Amino acid sequence: MLRSDAHLVPPPGPVRAVSGYRGPAANLCFKDVKATRHLRFAALDLIPVRPIPRTKLFANLCPLLGRTGPRFEGGLGIYCAARFHTDTAGYRRRGGDYRAASSPCGAARRSPAILLRRSSASVRGAAFRGAPRAAPFHQGLSRMSLRNIAIIAHVDHGKTTLVDQLFRQSGTFRDNQRVEERAMDSNDLEKERGITILAKCTSVEWGEGESATRINIVDTPGHADFGGEVERILSMVDGVILLVDAAEGPMPQTKFVTGKALALGLKPIVVVNKIDRSDARAAEVLDEVFELFLTLEANDEQLDFPILYASGRGGYASPDPEAREGTLEPLFQTIVNHVPAPGLDEDGPFTFLATLLDRDNFIGRILTGRIQSGTVKVNQPIHALDADGKVIEAGRASKLLAFRGLDRVPVEEARAGDIVAIAGLTNATVANTIADTSVTTPIAAQPIDPPTLSMRFAVNDSPMAGREGSKVTSRMIRDRLLREAETNVAIRVTESADKDSFEVAGRGELQLGVLIETMRREGFELGISRPRVLYQTDENGQRTEPYETVVIDVDDEHSGTVVEKMQIRKAELTDMRPSGGGKTRITFSGPSRGLIGYHGEFLSDTRGTGIMNRLFEKYGPYKGAIEGRKNGVLISNGAGEAVAYALGPLEERGILFVSPGEALYEGMIIGENAKPEDLEVNPMKSKQLTNFRSTGKDDAIRLTPPRRMTLEQAIAYIDEDEMVEVTPANIRLRKAILDPHERKKASRKKEAA
Questions:
Q1: Which of 83, 97, 475, 642 has the fewest CB atoms lying closer than 10 Å?
Q2: Other C-beta atoms within 10 Å of 585: how many?
Q3: Binding-site residues
Q4: Domains in the chain, start-ordered, CATH in brackets?
Q5: What is the pLDDT of residues 202-257, one digit of tens each?
Q6: Where does GTP bind (predicted)?
């Protein structure tokens, strides 16, 4: 075997340059091959014995030597940095081929190696042949030790930032590579909001030589509304990293996802993150985590969890809570030692549970999951089974994609335990079993908690419909919602009898708000109703409604106001304790119905300093009528453009939502009334023109800037008889019934009923 630092002697015969080069024959001396520690680049000195036109040599070598290209130095010498996407620290001979051997550090890339072709020459008696090609999957990857792990935590506790550091310290990124912060948050909405919305798979390598280990990592959302993403990916992993903020401690979402992981028997690793915070309280947080595990009825093996203290932003982890520097090597070592290998049957028939669904414009539907048994190869015949064992469709695995850092790389073969993406089927979806054609028994999928909230998505029927969006018909809306329900198992879509609206049920306002915002950016126009909870009936025939656990952190001076407002909304106080720094942590249990629309009022009551976290708790007894919005609204009584002259006097009536020059229509909400009842006004009234002038009548009108609502704020603000008009350009509030006479008739019927 040749070492990476070997000096190759000149070949005795002519070499036809490099594979792919069709220029003049030349004797080439491969003087030195140098490999860096992570084998990202190899340096070759190519010294042609006979002159070759530089431009032709450059053009023919570029495709082979990578995007870097050669740099000419001096007379006949040429120096080039050729990027090696290989598994290798050296070369291993297999039947005349020098192929990639295992990487000693596990950090090298796995795509085409640069191989050399000879005509009749030999180097140290060994022939070189071949062309750029991908090393087979089983020759490098599956031979490695494998670990599958998920990172779970509450929102903003540092999951994605920690994954960034795992990338950097495992050699996934070059030292000089420019990488965005929170690289796993690739969705535009994720970058804007600073939260993880979709679960994503990635992988890193750690270790050297025979001890090299591939670690497949699943980054999960931290917000409770996206809990469905967490529930379904837990079946792909064998362990979890529970990340807990050193100051905040276990939060509602921490309890939810940890309970799901412990119920599946997964072994946790507890990482107390942000240990460098000035208000960190690591010892107390660790006690709270242990109490949480006891509450969730963890077994003895799960209670014997390893503990690390880390700073994701600082890039270090240590068993010592006083450590403030270092690397993440203790975390890598803990994962390898504590998380078990998949231990699945590689010799059985191929079975695969689809967990995530994606689409590609070129290869079609892509299903991601973990191979439960057997081996799959490209173009192997497969079929899809539903939960009852019925064959949905049959086909071939046209593509196999493995995860390499942030990329999905084509491979030829994958084995049991590997997390891969499969293309080639057109109807299979999440929770289906993809298997060899001989398999008839499906894999049991994990049940998903049902949705608790619904909204009505309707065709936009306002006077401005079709002016700003390109997708306005019910058929387009229906197709888009059904596609979303197919990929997002926590969402359910029901079509109404009139075919013009759809009932969309989900986990919470944020989840449905993200769906609406995504559709708005795609060019859809929609009419959205106020969220409503989904009721159930218990065994005694009594109506039940969803309850939520609400954890609120507020300054001590605002705690009384918060408790009073929550009691008005039928919530019960279950815990209240000081959390340090002049703050109090208050825990409530209350109906979800009472919490809709409260968040904006909560921020006003706490001067923007309060933090509220909500989590579905249970279905409990119906609590009766709950007081809604106290203020009425200002409604436009005609169509036209808003005029500053008319808006000036209306400011005395309440808070305006529009500015001068905006297009209005009859029934559109233009502001909030200071009194409880709704008020129809004329915001288009202009000043009467006369021939008389007098001092003081033509003073400039100074208007307060209008209140602009985000999509979530608008959805939470509206009442039962109102809607949000969503277009790519604007978000408007309106009455569901635009005509004032019809609106009064409907109101009288409701009162009579």
A1: 475
A2: 19
A3: 156-161, 273-276
A4: 15-87 (no CATH), 145-338 (3.40.50.300), 351-436 (2.40.30.10), 537-621 (3.30.70.240), 633-687+701-752 (2.40.50.250)
A5: 888 887 777 788 888 888 887 777 777 777 788 888 999 999 998 888 887 778 78
A6: 156-161, 273-276
